[in-house]
Design goal:
Number of strands: 0
Oligomer: single chain
Order of helices and strands: HHHH
Number of helices: 4
Structural class: mainly alpha
Helix content: over 70%
Mean pLDDT: 85
Largest sheet: none
Length: about 150
């Protein structure tokens, strides 16, 4: 038992030393980066005010350009998603039209019976946004289902 505990302690010590070495390296890299930034800042302070303004403007232009590229990527992604959703909407509209066409063939009594039947449907969790469409005569049933 003692040997097992010693082995575990040595493993933990080794892991701790490796972790400490990685953190020291990270601190060293950060210190080097800080020194570079300080040198750049000191050089900027030694420049004339006009050059400082010009450098500030160049940095702002670079930042805005990067931000624009990010926004363009986001816009392309959203446009692609919109096209996909429009295609899905067209498919679903066609299915609804086919369903409505098939429902006109079904007698009224059968539709009433189908409404009263409860169907267990497995649904994926989705984030729905939008409006709910229903028939006026189904309102009490809809409210009852929402409450339960």
């Amino acid at each position: 038992v003692l040997r097992l505990l010693e082995a575990q302690l040595q493993d933990q010590r080794r892991e701790h030393e490796e972790e400490m070495e990685a953190l020291r390296n990270q601190v060293d890299l950060m210190q080097e980066e800080l020194e570079k930034q300080q040198q750049a800042f000191l050089q900027t302070l030694q420049l004339s005010p006009e050059v400082q303004v010009e450098l500030g403007l160049q940095q702002e232009i670079t930042r805005l350009t990067n931000e624009n590229l990010d926004l363009k990527e986001l816009l392309e992604k959203l446009e692609k998603n919109e096209r996909k959703l429009v295609k899905q909407l067209k498919i679903y509209m066609k299915k609804v039209q086919e369903f409505e066409a098939s429902q006109t063939v079904v007698p009224v009594e059968r539709r009433q019976h189908e409404r009263n039947m409860q169907v267990a449907v497995q649904r994926k969790e989705k984030d729905f946004q939008g409006m709910l469409e229903y028939y006026k005569e189904d309102e009490p049933l809809l409210i009852r289902n929402l409450i339960t």
